[in-house]
Write a structure and sequence with these properties.
four-stranded antiparallel sheet, 2 helices
């Protein structure tokens, strides 16, 4: 955040958009995919879990089945660890970085997608 502030002019705005905050996180599973015009397909299964609720991270596993136009397939798996912080922490960090901070509720849509906040910080004009 300090780096963002350094690159922000007085009166400028910085925006942070986490996928979720601690208060709104819930575990979920989501499936989807796409069919290409060229015969290729992608199917995915995404799972978000919080293996250790007392820490500040959660885990997302993304499994993808990729089919090529010739019918060959492969499975790819990516695993991510994301930070999971309380709304008050985000606001405190923005304030400590020298910004006027605000949390704007944001519903990303979809029943398996958590509501989150967009965090906006304005660098004061001095």
């Amino acid at each position: 955040m300090a780096t963002a502030v350094e690159h922000c002019r007085p009166g400028g705005v910085v925006v942070f958009a986490p996928d979720c905050v601690r208060e709104t996180f819930h575990e979920y599973e989501h499936d989807g995919g796409h069919d290409g015009d060229d015969g290729r397909t992608l199917r995915y299964h995404e799972t978000a879990t919080d293996p250790e609720p007392s820490d500040t991270t959660y885990r997302v596993e993304l499994r993808m089945r990729l089919r090529e136009a010739d019918g060959s397939e492969r499975i790819e798996t990516d695993v991510y660890t994301f930070g999971l912080f309380r709304k008050a922490e985000w606001l405190r960090w923005l304030t400590e970085a020298g910004l006027r901070a605000e949390a704007i509720p944001c519903d990303l849509g979809g029943e398996d997608v958590p509501t989150t906040y967009i965090f906006v910080g304005v660098r004061p004009i001095r």
